[in-house]
Amino acid sequence: MTDTRRRLVLAGHGMAGQRLLEAVTDRAPGAWRITVLAEEPRPAYDRVHLTSWFSGTTAEDLSLWPAGFAAEHDIDLRLDDPVTAVDRAARTVTTRSGHTVAYDALVLATGSRPFVPPVPGHDTPGCFVYRTIEDLEAIRDRAAHTGVGTVVGGGLLGLEAAGALREMGLHTHVVEFAPRLMAVQVDEGGGAALRRRIEELGVVVHTGVGGQAVGAGADGTVDSLTLSDGRTLATGMVVFSAGVRPRDELARSCGLPVGERGGIVVDTRCRTADPHIWAVGECAQAADGRVHGLVAPAYAMAEAAAEDITGGDGAFTGYEAATKLKLLGVDVASFGDAHGTGDGALEVLYSNTRAGVYKKLVVAPDGRLLGGVLVGDAAAYDLLRPLAAAGTPPATPPEQLVLPTPEGGAAGPVTLPDEAVVCSCHNVTKGAVRAAVSEGGCADVAAVKRCTRAGTGCGSCVRMLTTLVDDELAAGGAPVTKGLCEHFAHTRAELFEIVRVKNVTTFSRLIDEHGSGGEGCDVCKPVVGSILATLNPRLGNSVHILDGEQAALQDTNDHFLANLQRNGSYSVVPRVPGGEITPEGLITIGEIARDFGLYTKITGGQRIDLFGATVDQLPLIWRRLVDAGFESGHAYGKALRTVKSCVGQTWCRYGVQDSVALAIELELRYRGLRSPHKVKAAVSGCARECAEARSKDFGVIATSAGWNLYVGGNGGMTPRHADLLLTDADHATLLRTIDRFLMFYVRTADRLERTAPWIERMEGGLEHLRAVVVDDALGICDELDALMARHTETYEDEWRATLEDPERLRRFVSFANAPGTPDPTVRFLPERGQIRPAREHEAVAAR
Amino acid sequence: MTGPLVEIAPGTGGDWRAVCAYHDLLPGRGAAVLVDGHQIALFRDRGGAVYAVGNRDPFSGAHVISRGILGSRGTAPVVVSPMYKQAFDLRTGACLDEPAAPGGEPAALPVWRVRLTPAASACAGDVAPPNGGAHRPETARS
User: Fold this and answer.
1) B5-118 domain in CATH 3.10.450.50?
2) Interface pTM, i.e. ipTM
């Protein structure tokens, strides 16, 4: 059977190219036989978030090439084999490996190349550009062997690169030829605010100068950069990030017109002068005469081309550049006519040099918002950019939009018109989001993302999206059931406040006075058990979770202070703070495991799990462990688990702080803290992040100047990288902030809600969290501090306390009427030199 | 130590056996007992009623039902298996969440009859509890 499909060849597989593939296969499934000829050794990936690669995001995480996409659409993707020539007459392309591929439609999506100024020595080993994952790998390798790095270019990408160098622990210079940073996006005032904030972080900024020569040391690699004002910076590497140039050489060599400053000339349908050839993204000069370097216009061009190729009627007429980024922890945003170049443009300005905040709005005489610049606080961007694009005077006076608002008083997206674009990457309007909820049946943000693609590009609009979806759901009268279970109409946070404010000391009183009465259930009992455990010192209760009525509230793991395994046996995990353990400690654990015949395994939290104990054995095992100085590891509890660490400065050649000492201190400080869900933490001694701190509920990464604190990370089923909360904090600030973060979490999170979804759900997100725990915006920090102080003062080892009390020990029998008789159904078989649980019908020799 | 004893007998009929003191049972919690090689889970709820069901969890095959959390679903007193969290009606043994265990066996716990007798004379008459398996100490003392 002959293949009747027409042939589409895509030259280049970057973000625009991948978007084109998605759009074409979506609009005309099966209509095209598609060949992709890519230069890079890997399929399309998210270049917008490239810098996150340094903080642990893997190439796989960044990939935009869904598993199965090629198979589903029968796409022939050829990596490492770019197009080298186009024969327009024959309608074929030739690749580097010499293959010839015929096309009916050819799309050029070859992107751009970093511009490297032709200064002497620009190709010395130790000079880099910043565009591909391979570039970043090379930068990382070089960073391991030098202490100083210099970025040439103080634009958007240059500052990203500078942030990455700084995160890797390098002393960092930025050299910018223009008189200010980010000259394209921000004005003089904004540039000054940005510079101040960045210099506070220890980055040295040189503006109004260029690089003049790169010097090399005896080993032939970079050791200096001479500036145009004659100064010489000692530096072990130079990263050129001085703009990009369109990759238009294919078009040039086959006679297609290109723009004066480069870029393949295309019309509004992204067609070149040849009706069989389109060009999209950074390699093209769009119908507005400009070469666009951002992802949103690249996507819009890919959509327009796909529409045209599949017989539709799309157009890309131009793009109002808008940017919002966090560079080196500083918010920077600009949109619309940021420089006020339009006729009669007026300015509304708010500048707070002390706080490093600068906000400027450009407005028309009739009050229409034309554009703006935000530095240091870009929270209003999500609202302002669509307002500027909407072209109607906003309902709120412009000055209200830039003045700092009291907590919770910021104008919400409710003031936006329906036609306002909320997701600029995918061009989704507020009206489309509302319709997805009210008519499309989407019941949460995830569904709206799937349905409209809003929020799936750069992600900066997700918070606003959440508010929109919630508002729309509420407006639609969707029942909001937030009660815990049939016994309580309250959330965990509400119950916490009831217990705290009314000093409710028992579950009985709580369910009788505030719940349905009766027995409770497996949902509300452990929740109240956890709340009481946190507040017990304050309530005057015993702090032991097995005392009195509290014993009946605990899940089986907490009830036996061990972890239930599939055959009804338990596992035991002694605490090994920071993962540091003495040879004697290891030997003791080994001896105990051997004496009780337990299976041993190293955990992911840098400790040792001992499996196969019966309930009768638990006190005997713990007697030995406690005598040897071990204490409960709370592996069984919704509580702090471990604070993992790398070996740190003491031993590691790269470490810049003592991560082990800090991890031990943190683990001992927060051990035993009961929380809505388990809490994991880590401390890394340098930016190489060997402790994987950014996957933890709280993670600390050493810098040469102090500690960076990250919060809300998660591994598991829904991985999330933690957000940066503190930069270069000193020890006291770090501890105080973690204290407050944890107590605020314990107090306000839902049942079984880890910190990651808690922060994502929080109104105002990370900024709100920062306002509460750093700036004390709610005035509760004294209380949070006091709660944590009580916790650390009243901590006792649960296992030691259990062993000291015969009443507490009574529960550790398999049978109430036959103490000393172990459960005969718990049986084991040998495997790889240890035991494993026997399945129910497996024969077992006597143990 | 005085106080009533807990006696149980198979739901299908059979002899009463004293298994533990009523005060050995913690309100809102369970305990396992061993009777002729059978493992039975006893529960005392916050109101004082006592229930007895088989200790084997049909979903995991492990004998862990006694370690589950006691609760109520509507009017049904339930124990929630600590292994995979299915709820079982303590009066009937029926699983309220799934009809059958993975191997196809019915997801139900055997139910044992319960009565309380004064510690001094562990042979008082069988007072049939009003709600199937449960027994309140108040009625036993009358």
Assistant:
1) no
2) 0.86
